[in-house]
Amino acid sequence: LPLIAVCGRPNVGKSTLFNRLTGSRRSIVGDEPGITRDRIYGEIEWQGQDARIVDTGGVVPDDEALIPAEIFRQAQVALEEADAIVMVVDGRTELASPDMELARLLLRGGKPVFLAVNKMDTDAMQVQAENFRRLGFKNVLPISAEHGTGIGDLLDEVFAMLPEPREIETPEVMLTEGDEMAEDEDGPDFSPAPGAVVKPARRLRSHGEYEAKETKVAIIGRPNVGKSTLLNALTGTSRAIVSPIAGTTRDAVDEVVERGGHNFRFVDTAGIRRKGKTKLMAEKLSVIMARKHLEAADVSLLVIDATEGVAALDANIGGYAHESGRSVVIVINKWDLMTKTGPDGMRLFDGKPPADQKVYEQQVRDNLKYLEYAPLLFISAADGKNIESVFKKVELVSRERRKRVTTGQMNKFLEKVDFQKASVPMNKRVRIYYMTQAAVAPPTFVLFTDKDVKMHFSFERFLGNQIRDNFGFIGSPIWFKIKARN
Ligand code: GDP
């Protein structure tokens, strides 16, 4: 089995981390009189992959002066035996010189190394972890061994670098470098403004350590589609707890609604109600707000005015939602106006025949191609129609985005995929060895290939759809990364 070594100076939380990683499967080796108890081994399983783990720092010399020597010895053990090394530091204290010494030794060793910045118990503290980058590690991960946060991310990174015990044979498939390709005809037709990068969602883990009891929801859309009305319907019709919670900025207020044991936190509800003075200002503001709200959310409700259909601005805002990695539910609002008819059987709203949901949905989907994974709902926020289904869908997509597929399941799936159907124009042959899910929220898959290439958009879509057909991930975008093995 591959071996992971944990190093670090005393009191940084190595043992807590070690215990958390190994659970009850930890075995103390050499814990008998006369035998130096200097290494503790355990076993760990992650996403169907097994590894051994060793705590190299079992002996803590009482004498301060001996610490550097001990550190040196630890590093040597790690570098000799391990396939990957995790160095642990205490994120709440200043860097000490033994830390730097150990880091230097480990970084020179040529093995995959990771820095776990421990005791980062809150989100705010996680930022501090960045300070430790100056130790020189490429992989810096904030964790709280005590609370169990960040552990999943750490394991994802570490396991991705371990030698794979078995390699499955997949046919050679074609990936093409995106740059060389003409834009796909079916390609997305939105063009986010320069610098339109929304930070990826904080990764949530299903490591038994974190269970989402709350979903953060952003209500986004252009002016007058009915965002405030929807917010009122969602928070007002519920007779459950509705409590405004002050957010990070002075005027950001969240409202939380509880439904069947699940909390829905509508982020920055003050922002949802904000309106611009002129039409142009209101439109610009709606984009700025959408991006801000997406950053704070897990799931977005993209509200479309049924009487107007998908406008360019809707597509633009939808594009941001898609790129942000948040889950999306498309909400077609004001459906009442599209169906209410007079004595002549024609719509009161504009005298046209009543709209058909199937036909209408197809039109919306044609205009929001890149959101093909998003469930779509018809509602009337003003009449309070179909509001319950909004809660249900949000909860569903929130669960789906945190789903995990094991590497074993992934391998079986990959064997079944008919790559001939990918029909991608080909100018580069790439072999896919295997694929693992490296993260949740959004589900992110790493393809281990023999060459470092950029995945072509349509190949990504092909693979994404195959994954969806097999595993769901309703409402969530699927992200891919390529890791070339040399
Ligand atoms: P926002 O700018 O997106 O927050 O939009 P508002 O919530 O302020 O709604 C804009 C207008 O649409 C208001 O006059 C609402 O009363 C109206 N409206 C919102 N939802 C509905 C609906 O479901 N049906 C109808 N008929 N009107 C609606």
Tell me what you see in this structure.
The chain has 486 residues and is an alpha/beta fold. It has 3 domains: 3-160, Rossmann fold; 172-184 and 404-484, GMP Synthetase, Chain A, domain 3 (2-Layer Sandwich); 214-400, P-loop containing nucleotide triphosphate hydrolases (Rossmann fold, 3-Layer(aba) Sandwich), CATH 3.40.50.300. It is 31% helix and 22% strand. A 7-stranded mixed sheet has the order 2-3-4-1-5-6-7, with helices on both faces. Strands 10-11-12-9-13-14-15 form a 7-stranded mixed sheet, sandwiched between helices. Helix 9 links the parallel strand 13 (299-305) and strand 14. Helix 2 (67-81) runs parallel beside helix 3 and helix 8 (279-295) runs parallel beside helix 9. Mean pLDDT is 79; it is low at 25-37, 166-171, 176-211, 237-244 and 246-250.
Characteristics:
486 residues; alpha/beta; Rossmann fold; GMP Synthetase, Chain A, domain 3; 3 domains; seven-stranded mixed β-sheet; 14 helices; 18 strands; binds guanosine-5'-diphosphate; GTP binding; repeat; GTP-binding; GTPase Der; ribosome binding
Fourth-tier CATH superfamily name of the largest domain: P-loop containing nucleotide triphosphate hydrolases
CATH topology of the largest domain: Rossmann fold
Q: What top-tier CATH class of the largest domain fits best?
A: Alpha Beta
Largest sheet: 7 strands, mixed
Number of domains: 3
* Strand tally: 18
CATH level-two architecture of the largest domain: 3-Layer(aba) Sandwich
Overall form: elongated
Segments where pLDDT lies below 50 for 5+ residues?
Answer: 25-37, 166-171, 176-211, 237-244, 246-250
Largest sheet: spatial strand order: 2-3-4-1-5-6-7
Please state the CA-atom Rg, rounded to the nearest Å.
26 Å
Strand content: 15-25%
Structural class: alpha/beta
Mean pLDDT: 79
Distinct helical segment count: 14
Protein name: GTPase Der
Binding site for GTP 1: 8-15, 55-59, 118-121
Domain EngA-type G: 2-166, 215-402
Binding site for GTP 2: 221-228, 268-272, 333-336
